[in-house]
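Retry 2 of 3 after timeout on previous attempt. Resubmitting structure tokens to design endpoint.
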């Protein structure tokens, strides 16, 4: 059986000798250091489960040395063995991370009991850390699996809509890519960008309730037909709202056709009433739609789409989102896949 390694740090040779004999008789392996500087050399090369340390020594104090050990070797237990019976010093030592504070002259049994308790506490703490680390890893793995499942489900829903409307095949994914790129350009955190990406991939899911002949109609839509088209935001919200996403996906989908001045649909929201995620998605949706072919018109081109955003930012479209969109195309060469 491997012996437990203990480092004794004390400037008094007689104390080191006494501690060494007591510990070795109890089955421990000891290394002696006359001060903190020597102790630092030893701990670089060896793995000590426990350090017994005096408070007052030449050079670096015992408390400062213990702080160093706590920072650099957090799995090493420490006990102060000192002649200083001062509550303030004891409190400082406890704050530094010691496991025990023993006053000289000490009782041998008391010392051994403290050592055993400290080593046991150390084992339990290391076991807890290992358990938590393994648990975190399992949580990360499970989260990753759930993320892949969520993305797969969204992809399937997206494809369901686009199979019914071949003229806009890929539209939702392209809008999702642009919206998440705009959000990144605006400095959004990764989690919020992911929510925008998810909403972008689902923003037209409500079109599943619109007759195919209207979706693919080559001519101009009638007023009634256009009202049916406009209803897709509400239908999308109704489909997605029961799902407990970690982001306000259903609200983003509901609001992506709202406009700053209140001229959008379905609720005529304006300004701060509209989620910033919906404002970003609205910009991305307009740009992609104008730049792509539609049954009722050919592509207007990306330049015309960006001109629309530039002219009407602050009126229909959020200024910050519009400017970020212009930058990702003009300065960062964004292109639709």
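Retry 2 succeeded. Sequence:
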């Amino acid at each position: 059986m491997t012996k437990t390694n203990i480092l004794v740090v004390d400037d008094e040779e007689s104390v080191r000798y006494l501690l060494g004999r007591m510990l070795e008789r109890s089955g421990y392996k000891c290394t002696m250091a006359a001060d903190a500087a020597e102790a630092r050399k030893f701990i670089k090369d060896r793995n000590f489960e426990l350090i017994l340390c005096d408070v007052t020594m030449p050079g670096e104090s015992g408390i400062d040395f213990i702080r160093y050990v706590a920072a650099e070797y957090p799995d090493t237990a420490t006990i102060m063995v000192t002649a200083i019976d001062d509550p303030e010093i004891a409190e400082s030592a406890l704050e530094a991370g010691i496991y025990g504070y023993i006053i000289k002259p000490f009782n041998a049994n008391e010392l051994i009991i403290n050592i055993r308790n400290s080593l046991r506490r150390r084992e339990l703490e290391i076991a807890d850390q290992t358990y938590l680390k393994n648990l975190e890893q399992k949580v990360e793995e499970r989260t990753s699996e759930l993320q892949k499942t969520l993305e797969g489900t969204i992809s399937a829903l997206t494809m369901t809509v686009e199979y019914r409307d071949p003229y806009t095949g890929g539209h939702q994914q392209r809008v999702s890519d642009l919206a998440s790129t705009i959000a990144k350009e605006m400095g959004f955190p990764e989690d919020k960008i992911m929510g925008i990406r998810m909403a972008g991939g689902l923003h037209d899911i409500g079109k599943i309730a619109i007759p195919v002949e209207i979706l693919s109609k080559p001519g101009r839509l009638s007023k009634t037909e256009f009202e049916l088209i406009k209803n897709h935001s509400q239908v999308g919200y109704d489909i997605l709202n029961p799902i407990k996403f970690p982001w306000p996906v259903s609200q983003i989908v509901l609001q992506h056709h709202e406009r700053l001045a209140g001229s959008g649909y379905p609720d005529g929201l304006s300004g701060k009433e509209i989620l910033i995620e919906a404002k970003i998605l609205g910009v991305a949706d307009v740009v992609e739609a104008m730049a792509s072919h539609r049954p009722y018109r050919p592509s207007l081109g990306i330049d015309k789409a960006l001109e629309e955003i530039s002219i009407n930012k602050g009126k229909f479209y959020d200024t910050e989102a519009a400017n970020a969109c212009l930058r990702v195309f003009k300065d960062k060469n964004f292109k639709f896949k």
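Attempt log closed. The mean pLDDT is 89.
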